[in-house]
Amino acid sequence: xxxxxxxxxxxxxxxxxxILIVIFLIFILLPIGYVILISLTPxxxxxxxxxxxxxxxxxxxxxxxxxxxxxxxxxxxVIISGFAGVIAxxxxxxxxxxxxxxxxxxxxxxxxxxxxMQTVPQVMLLLPLFVIFVIIQRTIAxxxxxxxxxxxxxxxxxxxxxxxxxxxSYMANIPLELEExxxxxxxxxxxxxxxxxxxxxxxxxxxxxxxxxxxGWSDVLFASVLTNGGTQTVAVGxxxxxxxxxxxxxxxxGQLMAASLTSGIPIIIIFLFVQKYIIGGLAAGSVKG
Amino acid sequence: MLPRSTQGESxxxxxxxxxxxxxxxxxxxxxxxxxxxxxxxxxxxxxxxxPALLLLLVLVALPFLLSVxxxxxxxxxxxxxxxxxxxxxxxDNYITAIRQGNALGASALQSVFVSVAFSIGxxxxxxxxxxxxxxxxxxxxxxxxxxxxxxLLPYITPVFVNAITWRLxxxxxxxxxxxxLGFLHIASKQTLWLIGPHSFxxxxxxxxxxxxxxxxxxxLAGLQGISDELYQSAFIDGASRVRSFFSITLPMLRxxxxxxxxxxxxxxxxxxxLPFMMFxxxxxPSADVLPLNVYVTSFQTFNFGLGSAMSIITxxxxxxxxxxxxxxxxxxxxxx
Lengths: 289, 336
What we know:
Largest interface: A-B, 125 and 117 residues
Distance between the termini of chain A: 49 Å
Distance between the termini of chain B: 34 Å
Shape of chain A: flat
Structural class of chain A: mainly alpha
Structural class of chain B: mainly alpha
Number of helices of chain B: 13
Largest sheet of chain A: none
Order of helices and strands of chain B: HHHHHHHHHHHHH
Strand content of chain B: under 5%
Helix content of chain B: 55-70%
Number of strands of chain B: 0
Number of helices of chain A: 12
Order of helices and strands of chain A: HHHHHHHHHHHH
Number of strands of chain A: 0
Helix content of chain A: over 70%
Radius of gyration of chain A: 25 Å
Oligomer: heterodimer
């Protein structure tokens, strides 16, 4: 009697789970599906009430490269986010090693400020940084606003604390005994970092790089103020479509959606490649959400 | 590649979207780390953290101090060329921030309300969604790895893409939302979602869609830490599944849920990209979150002093949840 009722209960929960999973998948995929549909709809048919386009406008995926400088913007995004990711990861490696291995005065303050920095609103830093860049421009006549390095530098404000924090948790998992053994064998400190720590923390470095890259790729705030027409990132570039609508013109919705998908797909591909390492990192360094 | 830790991966290791063994998102392991000393005859190793320290001082600490200073001055597009001589006006900016709006939008005080409502509202909405999702995929079944990967899709899509997506979905008349609601006769097909009072809800819905996987991930990590034996003994005692959920799962999840809710509140309070890309600037006052308001004040009306004052107000407000967050990380206990 108990077994059969148990089986019924088991079946009930299994069915419920299936139904809920389907609801979730609809919830997730419906907006994405709609975007794909609109990206293939001719602009003339987007607003006229019919859900299905009469023909698929693959041309949106061609025209978007001409309407805005999509290729250039993607290249800018890759350059800026890539450099920001590499620099943040390498600098964070040194800091994380010292923070994880040595006790020193001010260590706790450093750790606390790393966390606090991740909660500081970015817009609060952007304004004074902008003022500083303008001052530098005026005094020594070096163009700052609109340069790659300026944007990369400002991305350190979020990428560096994040990468430090992430690598710290990886570093703490590397057994100290390995390093001690190497030291007994006469290995110098840099040699230890190079030969013992580096290979062991490589997955952590990958995660730190990918996340710093993703944070940079998704940034709109810094890029919208600190880039110019030549260095703007893809997120800023996409705004050109939207802005044309606000100025009273027609928004090329089909192209905008095609371009949005195109700029989101590299991120999703990167994610699929490294996700084995990344989910733990998501949780470990979750301050940036 | 080498395993990232001496502990093995969990039983589900090697799958797509695996949650590693250590379930706590708090890197408490930092606190238990073994320390070493700078060895005799060895030159200091502290130089390794100098680049990070320097960069953070120049890029975070210095701007912070500058921001405090400019919040007390009348710095605008006319005085920025000679910023040191910008008139010092004390707390006038703070008073202005609270009393009146800038030319283009809501006052800072109103933005505070919008931001607080937004961050708390989204967190309240996405919490049950995240918990249910985590429970759904916690036990093995065929195709689970794919479902797990798909569940993360909204989260890994860049926020600006999400924002553009929802801008499309919320378009008046032909957007999917208006179409569906009109079809179901729930609301008018002409509802304006992107301007006016409804824009707050458009922003909340878009944000819940984009960020519930964060809670799902945290809960999933927490679920891994609950031993099966607890459920077995509850089962023997005749407890139903619903009962086990409320008597075992939820209490065991409490620490991680606390942290997740806190982080979610913090993150949403700082969300600039979503409203910025969804509504453009200036947004309607009911969607004018504080970071967006600071942006418009500073870079569109060029009132840098007022913008600084508003961002200081933001920071002070952020300090409240941040304080609890730091408390929960228990950094203070490392001396033990």
